[in-house]
């Protein structure tokens, strides 16, 4: 292979000022840098090709119109396409260059174009997209996501539709999620959220894909309550198949069982339990016992834990999520059955090895005001406080009335004319 020289390229630009003629003459140098038979392409020839492109791109008198077109043509040829020019067709349609050589060429090409990113935005995006595809096929999801993320979609010279941007952002988020980079995945999914805010049609396939991926990301980040809510929303979407809705429902039940106690969790727990489809889900028995505040056996906890994904088993501190949530549930369930219970019996009930561990669980719940009880360390027992249900009901009604009053005051402040009109018609 005869190597082309910088002087030959300079001569092309000096002979012609017309972009079309410059491009055609540069293409006539292809036999020196890009063999017509791609099977003969090897590492030295790739280096020669890259030097050729570098010289064209960096040529001070060269037009970027020409260099952009040249880069596009060479990428197309490396992928096996025939090249059409004024002097005829160069090379036949064939298999693309093997992944290793194509990856090497594209990475080096990226290095050449990056310093002039403003002038070569579209070409950089094209190269990055192709590199992402190669790394994804190789199973290197994190590297594939890196190249997709570095595509400057917002400032590309050609207008990119919001739907196309969403597809790329969703793909990037999915790759980060597969690479167990949930935080980076959430950053990418948030970009999609901003784009979808302006969409008129809210329930199309793209939106469903976004919701499904966002739910998985929230679950992966152990934000189980938010994840459960989004999974349940998907479980009720008519755009999903029956099997997909069932999978979403199962994910919602798992997430709500792992979520920390609270009013929002309780409301979602009720919705899931009363959903007729839930009885067909494997974790329904556990859901039922949680809803009815019944004791959950140690074996049931172990079986549920075995069905979980790695991120669902331990929190960021390395503590067992299932143990923390379901053991606390069992303590609450015990408080509904017993007036008092010895630490030894509580440990046996919870499936905990020692009385001291059972005492620590109960003590922490009392300190966090999640359990109304007193501990008698002399007698080694816990005494549960019974709340008067009527007094508790009155308190809830009072809180509800207070919230309604606040809403009324807010509406009156913002829309006094509307309130006056409504009251006059009452």
TrEMBL record:
- Similarity comment: Belongs to the CSN4 family.
Protein name in the entry: COP9 signalosome complex subunit 4
Q: Which domain of life is it from?
A: Eukaryota
List each copy of the PCI domain by range: 223-389
Q: Name a single GO cellular component.
A: cytosol
Q: Which Pfam families match?
A: PCI, PSMD12-CSN4_N
**InterPro entries recorded for this chain?**
PCI_dom, PSMD12-CSN4-like_N, PSMD12/CSN4, WH-like_DNA-bd_sf, WH_DNA-bd_sf
**Cell compartment(s), UniProt:** Cytoplasm; Nucleus
**Any idea which UniProt keywords this protein has?**
Cytoplasm, Nucleus, Signalosome
Q: Which organism is it from?
A: Pristionchus fissidentatus
């Amino acid at each position: 292979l005869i190597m082309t020289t910088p002087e030959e390229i300079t001569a092309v630009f000096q002979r012609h000022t017309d972009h079309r003629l410059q491009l055609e003459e540069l293409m006539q140098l292809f036999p020196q840098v890009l063999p017509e038979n791609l099977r003969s392409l090897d590492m030295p020839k790739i280096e020669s090709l890259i030097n050729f492109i570098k010289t064209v791109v960096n040529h001070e008198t060269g037009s970027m119109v020409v260099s952009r077109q040249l880069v596009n043509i060479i990428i197309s040829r490396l992928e096996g396409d025939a090249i059409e020019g004024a002097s005829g067709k160069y090379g036949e349609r064939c298999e693309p260059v093997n992944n290793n050589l194509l990856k090497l060429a594209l990475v080096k090409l990226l290095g050449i174009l990056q310093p002039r990113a403003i002038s070569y935005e579209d070409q950089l995006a094209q190269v990055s997209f192709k590199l992402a595809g190669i790394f994804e096929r190789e199973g290197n999801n994190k590297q594939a996501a890196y190249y997709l993320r570095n595509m400057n979609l917002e400032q590309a010279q050609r207008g990119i539709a919001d739907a196309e941007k969403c597809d790329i952002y969703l793909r990037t988020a999915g790759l980060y999620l597969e690479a167990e980079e949930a935080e980076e995945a959430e950053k990418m999914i948030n970009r999609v959220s901003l784009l979808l805010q302006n969409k008129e049609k809210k329930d199309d396939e793209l939106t469903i894909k976004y919701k499904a991926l966002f739910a998985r990301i929230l679950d992966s980040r152990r934000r189980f309550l938010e994840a459960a809510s989004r999974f349940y929303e998907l479980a009720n979407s008519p755009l999903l198949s029956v099997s997909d809705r069932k999978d979403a429902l199962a994910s919602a039940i798992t997430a709500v069982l792992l979520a920390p106690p609270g009013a929002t969790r309780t409301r979602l727990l009720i919705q899931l339990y009363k959903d007729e489809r839930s009885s067909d889900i494997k974790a329904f028995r556990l859901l039922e016992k949680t809803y009815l505040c019944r004791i959950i056996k140690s074996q049931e906890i172990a079986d549920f834990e075995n069905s979980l994904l790695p991120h669902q088993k331990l929190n960021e501190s390395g503590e067992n999520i299932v143990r923390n949530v379901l053991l606390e549930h069992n303590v609450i369930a015990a408080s509904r059955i017993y007036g008092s219970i010895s630490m030894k019996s509580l440990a046996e009930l919870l499936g905990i090895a020692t009385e001291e561990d059972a005492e620590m669980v109960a003590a922490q719940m009392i300190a966090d005001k999640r359990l109304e009880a007193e501990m008698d360390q002399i007698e080694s027992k816990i005494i549960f406080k019974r709340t008067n249900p009527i007094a508790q009901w009155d308190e809830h009604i009072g809180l509800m009335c207070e919230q309604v009053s606040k809403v009324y005051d807010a509406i009156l402040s913002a829309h006094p004319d509307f309130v006056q009109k409504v009251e006059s018609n009452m």
